[in-house]
Structures are given as structure tokens and as C-alpha cells.
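Dear Dr. K.,

Following up on our conversation at the group meeting, I've run the structure prediction for Reticulon 4 receptor from Naja naja. I'm pasting the input sequence below exactly as I used it, so you can double-check it against your construct before we proceed with anything downstream. Let me know if the numbering doesn't match what you have in your notebook.
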Amino acid sequence: MKRAIAEGSKLLILVLCLNFPSEVELCPGACVCYSEPKITISCQQQGLGAIPIEIPVQTQRIFLHNNRISLIQSTSFTFCRNISILWIHSNNISLIEPGAFYGLDKLEELDLSDNVNLKSINPSTFQGLVHLHTLHLDRCGILELSTGLFRGLFSLQYLYLQDNNLQELPDDTFLDLANLTYLFLHGNKIKRLSENVFRGLTNLDRLLLHQNRVGGVHRRAFHDLGKVMTLYLFNNNLTVLSGETMAPLGSLQYLRLNGNQWVCDCQARSLWDWFKQFKGSSSELECHLPTQLAGRDLKRLPSTDLEVCLDSFNQIRTSVFSTKTKSGKLPTAGPTLGPQDNAQKCCPPEMDKSFIYEAKAKAGPSSHSNRASPNNPLKDKENMAKTKHQVEVELPKNGSSKHINDSPFGTYPSVVDPPLTNLKPEFLGPVEPSTTPTKRRQGCSRKNKSRSQCRMAQPAPGASPSLPALPSLLLPPVMWSLFCFS
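The predicted C-alpha cells came back this morning:
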């Protein structure tokens, strides 16, 4: 009897000795294996291009981060039924085959973050992970969340989806995540929140949506978020958020809405009313419109400032085409130029039209200086007309005179006098220096007392253009003859 017991003890010691070295031999190359506190295979930062195939069956934790793994095959973890923690973050994973995590019903934490080429994930990838409570999918370049991607993950509590390229969240994306407490969606390109986008998240505590492009929130988007205590919506494109939208957030304690383009008019009144009963902590809501309220905190405005309703066209026009000054106010446009008077009169108004030719003609040494005369603008016009026979000025063929030029006025007047270049050169007097006083245009002096005197001052039809001073020489003898015969 004693002999049998002694032989049994020797056999047990032999078995134990054989088992110990076998565990050491099963540790994959370039990895470190240890059994306390849990059986762990650590292969991080080893330059691995694929998942090791000789992972022991009893392994509970696998660390494969900071390698060059690009593919997770459907057979990579087939025999690893005891895994509770799997870290594969910071690799080059671009594809996860369907069924890659099938059968890992003890898995509690899965980290796939920092795989920038993982742009899409098959909707069946996480099926069967009934004990998973933490899932890292941040910084993966994900473009969209497939319908049913999180189906069946009833134990999930922490979901990290920040810093991806998500542009929209389909309705009921998180429907099965009744135990989710933290949802991180910041740093994406999400544009709007629909009615049922957060349906099912009845135990959510923290929702981070900052640094997206959210411009619209459905009035019932938060209807299942009665336990949310922290909500971040800062640095988005929000202009209006109704109090009805915020009403379901009965447990809210920390709210950040800064960094949005708030319109503080009658549309903001319901949100203003909601803040009156909100007991938690909130950031400022800096008004963007109207301009007289720019920079002020919506929550601190008197109710009288929210009685005016801005039209939508004014909002769009201001936000697209205007720029804030250093003082925070929007600049106002200067007065516009009115239309020119087109009426034909005996004596035209005293208008300086020198800018008509300013951008076209180059003045010679003795020509007009193109500078407006403060005493008599009509002389400037006549002097400019005399210069025009030296330089060709192109006018549009259709007779229109509305052009853009480089002069300070910007446009021509609506009516321009007929070009004098069409007259014969002999009817245009010699060009006078700009310093010489110019003559008034004959027949249009404002000193004429009557039409007869105006006609008398005009040259006779048969008068020679070479004798411009003849009427003035004949005037004294005519006056003496009238005096003598009267």
C-alpha cells in the first residue's frame, strides 16, 4: 500500500515538471508571457506584420499594440476562448474579416483605435460579444457606421468613436446599448442630429459631440437622454436650439454650447426660457446676430432684446458676406451713388465729367491736368473736350455708356455728351495750357439775361471760323449807330 502511494507521488511530480516547461515553450516568439494576475501574452512594439498563430488557448489578455498588423483574419483568435482583454490599437489595420471575433463571448475590452486605414467595419464584426463593456474605435478614419454594427452589445458601457470622419448618424444606431454610459463622438463631421439618433440610450451619462459640424438638432433628438449629466456641443454650426429640444435632459449638470453662431432673436426665446430653470453649469452662448448684440451672452440678455425676428435672408447674407471688425461689430456699407440726371437743359448742370476720360486718355504737356477745377467745372469739361482730338476714345458700338473704369467713381454716368471727336478740327480751338483761363462754352453762359442775348452771343451761320473775335469788334460801332439814330 505504501509502495503504491510512493509511486503515485512520483508520477504526480513528473507530470508537474513536464507541464511547466511546456507553458514556456508555447509563448510566441518576440512576446513576453506571464500568468499573474492573469495569463497574458504581451507582444507590443515588436514590428509584427501579422497576429501570431501560436497563442496559448488559456490566454486571458493579449497585447498586440504598436506593431504593423494590417489584417485581422477570421481564424486569428479561433482557439482563444478565454480572452477578456484584446488590445490591437496603433497598427495599420485596414480590414477585419467577418467572424474575426466570433466565439469570444468572454471578451470585455476591445481596443482597435489608431488604425487610420480602418475606414469601414462589417456590420457582423462584433456579433456575439455579449460581455463587451469597452470598445475603442477612435482615430480610425471611419466614414460611416453600418446599420446593426452595435447590435446585441447589451453590456457595452464605454464607446469611443471620436476623431473619425463620420458625417451622419443613422437612426437607431445605438438602439441595443441600453447600458451605455459614455459616448464619445467629438472630432467628426456630423452635420445634424435626427429624431431617433440616440434612441435606446436610457442610461447614458456623458455625451460628447463637440468639434463637429452640427447645424440642426431635431426637437426630439434627446428624448431618451433623461440621465445625461454632461453634454458638449461647443464648436459646431448651431444658430438655433429650442427649449423643447433641451427639456428631456432632466439630469443635466454640465453643458457647453460656446463656439456656435447663435442668432439672438425671437427664435432664441424658448432656449432663453429654458436656461431660467436650468440649475447646472453652462458656458456662455455668444450672440452672432443681430449685430447690436454680437458678443453678448444669450443667457444674460433681457427678454426685450429677443422680441425682434430676423428674416432668414438677412441671416444668410450677413453670415456669408460680412466680416467682424476688431470691436466685434459688423461694418456698415457706405451710401450708394444715385442715378445721374438725364434731363436735357439749355445750360447743363455744373458737373465734372473729367473722370470719363481719365482712364482712357493720356494728357500731353500742355493739355488739361485732369484735376477738377473748384471754380468752374464747365471750363474743365471744355478743356477736356479740346484735348480729345489728340487721343482716340473708344465708346461702345451700341451707344451704351455704362462702363467700369479705374477712376474713383467706378462707373460712367448714365448719359455722356456726344463725343467731340466727330467735329472737324477747325471747329476746335487750339489747345491751351492748363494754367490759362478757359473760355465759357459759347451760347451757354449763365450770365445771359435773355434768349435774345444768348442768340446774339452765338457766331453767325456764315461767319468764318478763322475770325473768332469778329462779333466783339463789331459790337461798339453798332451800339454807337443805335444811339445816334434813336
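Two things stood out to me. Residues 12-25, 315-441, 443-449, 461-473 have pLDDT under 50 and may be disordered. The longest strand covers residues 32-34.

Best regards,
J.T.
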